[in-house]
Design brief:
The protein has 3 domains: 196 residues, FAD/NAD(P)-binding domain (3-Layer(bba) Sandwich); 131 residues, 3-Layer(bba) Sandwich (FAD/NAD(P)-binding domain), CATH 3.50.50.60; 73 residues, Enolase-like, domain 1 (2-Layer Sandwich). The model has no long low-confidence stretch (mean pLDDT 96). Helix content is 21%, strand content 30%. The chain is built from 7 helices and 26 strands. By secondary structure, the chain is α/β, with parallel strands linked by helices. The protein starts with a strand and ends in a 13-residue tail after the last helix. The strands form 6 sheets. Strands 1, 2, 3, 4, 5, 6 and 19 form a 7-stranded mixed beta sheet that branches. It has a 5-stranded parallel beta sheet with strand order 8-15-9-10-11, with helices on one face. The protein binds flavin-adenine dinucleotide (FAD). The site of flavin-adenine dinucleotide (FAD) has 36 residues, from helix 1, helix 4, helix 6 and strand 22. Keywords: FAD, Flavoprotein, NAD, Oxidoreductase, Redox-active center. This is monodehydroascorbate reductase (NADH). Its cofactor is FAD. It comes from Marchantia polymorpha (Common liverwort).
Length: 426
């Protein structure tokens, strides 16, 4: 059992950790000042690739191809990059205890890490159906997706079940993206979700109808308005049937559960102020304890634009919050300051040849244009959310880089809808 001390420690080795490391380097870092401690065996990578190119039937993405910060056009930070920069990348190492008072972290093997400043970037963990007591939900062949090892296991299962039956439970990002890649892998795919349409947290029915129609044309079955209530397995404990609450049964060789995620706050939840499921931070990602920062999925931060506290589980925020925390730390050392975080929510997804982006807030009335009867090959349509005569949120399928930029500007500036000649021409 060893004890080590670092000026800075990043706890967690995901998206935020990779971007924070790069920012430390850009701001000036001495060898031996920074350690990243991660449960994962791989250096930080762009997690969204796992539900997309990682599972492609042809030339699937593999590490080191998508280490951070390639997702935003930056350098590919392989383990060698970290060692060249003098950063200790402590992989395959779970922190099991933490003391804010003693400024220390303890790993599963009993090693103790002391820090001057800590950035908590522990992300989130998928929710399992067994968490709700669904019978049979721990059978073999039921997959969840968060880390590269989950994606590898799923990839191998897909290869082992050519032309097999796959059921995606959940109609959010994970369900939609995975249904697409399973279909591309020639599996017979059924999606199941309780809501009346997919992506209900963002989409309105007209938008969802386009994607559901597209998926159906690809041969994906969609079962709505019911939930998976149990699973049956064969004598080897492998899932074979998904039982639905409405009495139907679906054959399954592979099941993917995408029903949401829970932020990993357990280590500190009694030591730091928690709000909306995450660590409450200020506009500089400072938690309630001195020299302890929280970024990415675990941070509940002031969303200045809407004057409210929010927790965001998206990659763009993970990157930007990490950068903000490091700039804050470095500015304090230099006796300077940085501007408060001023985030414009931004989400995106890609599946098949489709690709959409959303900026802002989906509040008010949704005005959808071009979705009905949109061309399936070169789909292009969008929506604006309008409140008190102002554009609050903007969505575009199939937009160019310039168009997406215009979308972001409209949502950021909350432009009066009366100044827009045509909604399709922002
Ligand atoms: C499959 C998938 C697809 C996604 N696709 C999109 C997308 O298309 N668009 C989008 O905007 N967002 C997407 N997201 C969300 C996005 O990836 C997350 O918001 C982002 O990764 C959050 O970054 P983070 O650094 O906070 O957490 P993470 O990237 O999850 O990293 C957390 C890290 O902390 C480690 N850790 C946790 N606890 C401990 C511990 N006790 N000890 C040591 N290490 C620990 C974890 O192992 C992990 O390495 C996707 C997420 C998933 C899972």
């Amino acid at each position: 059992m060893a004890e080590k001390s670092y000026k800075y420690i990043i706890l967690g080795g995901g998206v935020a950790a990779g971007y924070a490391a790069r920012e430390f380097v850009q701001q000036g870092l001495q060898a031996g000042e920074l350690a990243i401690i991660s449960k994962e065996p791989a250096a930080p990578y762009e997690r969204p690739a796992l539900s997309k190119a990682y599972l492609f039937p042809e030339s699937p993405a593999r590490l080191p191809g998508f280490h951070t910060c390639v997702g935003s056009g930056g350098e590919r930070q392989t383990p060698q990059w970290y060692s060249e920069k003098g950063i200790d990348l402590v992989l395959d190492t779970e922190v099991v205890e933490a003391s804010v008072a003693q400024k220390s972290l303890k790993t599963a093997s009993g090693d103790v890490y002391k820090y001057g400043a800590l950035i908590i970037a522990t992300g989130a963990t998928f929710i399992k159906l067994s968490d709700f007591g669904t019978p049979g939900a721990d059978a073999k062949g039921i997959y969840h997706l968060r880390e590269v090892e989950d994606a590898t296991a799923l990839y191998e299962a897909i290869k082992a079940n050519p032309n097999g039956n796959a059921v995606c439970v959940g109609g959010g990002y994970i369900g939609l993206e995975l249904a697409a890649v399973l279909n591309m892998n020639k599996m017979k795919v059924t999606m199941v979700y309780p809501e009346p349409f997919c992506m209900p947290r963002l989409f309105v029915s007209e938008i969802a109808a386009f994607y559901e129609g597209y998926y159906k044309e690809k041969g994906i079955e969609i079962v709505k308005g019911t939930v998976a209530s149990g699973f049956e397995s064969n004598e080897h404990g492998e899932v074979k049937v998904v039982k639905l609450k409405d009495g139907r049964e679906l054959p399954a060789d592979i099941v993917i559960v995408g029903v949401g995620a829970r932020p990993n706050i357990g280590l500190f939840k009694d030591q730091l102020t928690v709000e909306k499921g995450g660590f409450k931070v200020d506009g500089f990602f400072k938690t309630s304890a001195e020299n302890v920062y929280a970024v990415g999925d675990v941070a509940t931060f002031p969303l200045k634009l809407y004057n409210e506290l929010r927790r965001v589980e998206h990659v763009d925020h993970a990157r930007k919050s990490a950068i903000q925390a490091v700039q804050t730390i470095k500015a304090a050392e230099a006796g300077t300051s940085v501007e408060e975080y001023d985030y414009l929510p931004y989400f995106y997804s890609r599946a098949f040849s489709l690709s959409w982006q959303f900026y802002g807030d989906n509040v008010g009335d949704a005005v959808v244009w071009g979705a009905k009867g949109a061309d399936k090959v070169n789909a292009k349509f969008g929506a604006y959310w309008v409140k008190d005569g102002k554009v609050m949120g903007a969505f575009l399928e199939g937009g160019s880089a310039d168009e997406n930029k215009a979308l972001a500007t409209a949502a950021r500036n909350q432009v009066p809808v009366s100044t827009i000649k045509e909604l399709s021409n922002l």
